[in-house]
Amino acid sequence: MHPKTLVLALVGAAAAAPSVLASDVDRAAVLAAAPAEVVVAGSTWGMRAAERAPAAWLVGGAEAPAGEGGGGDEDLAKKLSNPVAALISVPLQLNYDDGYGVDDDGSVTRLNVQPVIPITLDCRWNLISRTILPVVWQEDMFPGDGGVSGLGDTVQSLFLSPQEPTAGGLIWGAGPVFLLPTATDERLGGEKWGAGPTVVALTQRCGWTVGILANHIWSFAGAEDRPDVNSTFLQPFVSYSTKTAWTFTLNTESTYDWEAEAWSVPLNFAVSKIVKLGKLPVSIGAGVRWWAESPDGGPEGVGFRLVWTFLLPKR
Prior knowledge:
Blueprint: H1 3-16, H2 43-51, H3 69-80, E1 87-100, E2 106-113, E3 116-120, E4 125-139, E5 148-151, E6 154-162, E7 171-180, E8 192-205, E9 208-222, E10 230-241, E11 246-252, E12 254-257, E13 262-277, E14 280-293, E15 302-313
Antiparallel strand pairs: 1-2, 1-15, 2-4, 3-4, 4-5, 4-6, 6-7, 7-8, 8-9, 9-10, 10-11, 10-12, 11-13, 12-13, 13-14, 14-15
């Protein structure tokens, strides 16, 4: 099945079944990297796309209760909005965007495989590992390009985070982020190695989660004929989780490419629901976004997202 047809079919299926409409605290859209001579953002898009993911994917911390019924599901829904919850999660995020290229005819379908693993260091600290591996199908990015598919660049983040919030209720994590040039085609990545700092901070109260995720990546090695990576990512987010384990999320995922002097600003709204596959809790979600700003040749209009996240509470 054509990737575009697959996305539209899945969106339609989600709309027809309210019990499975959902999405974790908004997964950010991962953009495909077109050749540098075609898309101004070039390699930066290949990297930033993989890094654009909400704080909800960062998980660790004290043991999480995963009881049956609304209470346990409500707790899991809140922990998906919390970067220091005691969950091992495996999100599968399917994104579709179009309007790419010089003629606005290009489209990108991207499946992000993003295992998140919390590691307890001692009684006070956790280390949260998040890997983002994109599988990409892109078409008509520039005239004469029939399309390409394969792996994109991998982003690996490590967050050191206290197990307990501060006295004021602040939850935070900080550490390094790495860009790995794993793309199987030069059109799907930037062919650059990169690194930089990343930080997340949030607070949770009465079902609400409010916070921000930020990072900066510089390239330090790789193909000399490709643009350097030098970009800042800012993702303020707000979400609300109900007692029946629905979560509603609004955020913006803004990236500034210092090399191209260009912004990418998608505005995202997502809805998620915790359901059970047997005894296994799963978050199933759907979302839409509108591209308020993008570089020349970047996506335009409205994009779509479906997310399946398998949850494994720590025991």
